[in-house]
């Protein structure tokens, strides 16, 4: 049986109350869906997850997950040691965290998310050239990777964006628990990157001006921080708290949130690679208003399948007001969003990865026997 190993710092959230919970973040979901696709091919998949919490070992079908405890200062050295001992094709997930000068195993694959990475194009050697191929999830990441490539005759970097299950996330007839109510869904975690405080001020204005509006925060359980504390404090004595809901969904259940939504808002100010929530809402035919940041721009064409604005309170309020006031605009953007989502069908995403894996495995690229000596 062919074997593929993924090296990552992401997958299971060991701080969660449940055992080995897969977070709904984009990085973790991308890795897990990749694991499931490899498993469907009948290949053995092993995930090596570095963690400061503690070592663990878990088996899910043909997917083996090995948690390796490591201190932060030992992290790079530990990955180098693991790379030397692993047989089969290696996939480094999150190469922007390791950097271009890391001694990747020759013949391996790197995945880049370009979240918070800093590009230094002055580096002229010891770059990503050791990798056989680099997969990026958005064009923002691709630009950063291409900047480093000085020696390759053929530039590395192919874009395999996130995907959506078109059969699961599909338009439905809208319903609401209140007659003539309109539900705005914020499918985000509460953290600084999502501009929590500005979002709460925005919602204050919306609920005051539009008495028919219901607001729902739809996310999975998250760790306690100053932003979740601020949210609870804000909600506790809110004059419209009867129209504010904070619902918990695993990423596998997010379609339930979109079935109730009339508008989806993604107000990310800076922390955004590309967004599963954006694709899923589009696939459900829900009009989206989002901050014009990061990988969101790969999905939304302003005025055609959504609204892109500066992610500031006034801009977001004006965009949401336009959608609330004009049902025809909601229908137009939602319909075009569903059409756009067809280009990101999960079936196509799987075929892209399968094609890449088969090419490398058929040529036995990445096996220890075929790795040249440094």
TrEMBL record:
InterPro entries for this protein: Glyco_trans_1
Identify the CDD domains for this entry. Answer: GT4_PimA-like (cd03801)
Tell me one GO molecular function of this protein: glycosyltransferase activity
Looking at the record, the residues that make up the Glycosyl transferase family domain are: 252-339
Annotated protein name in UniProt: Glycosyl transferase family 1 domain-containing protein
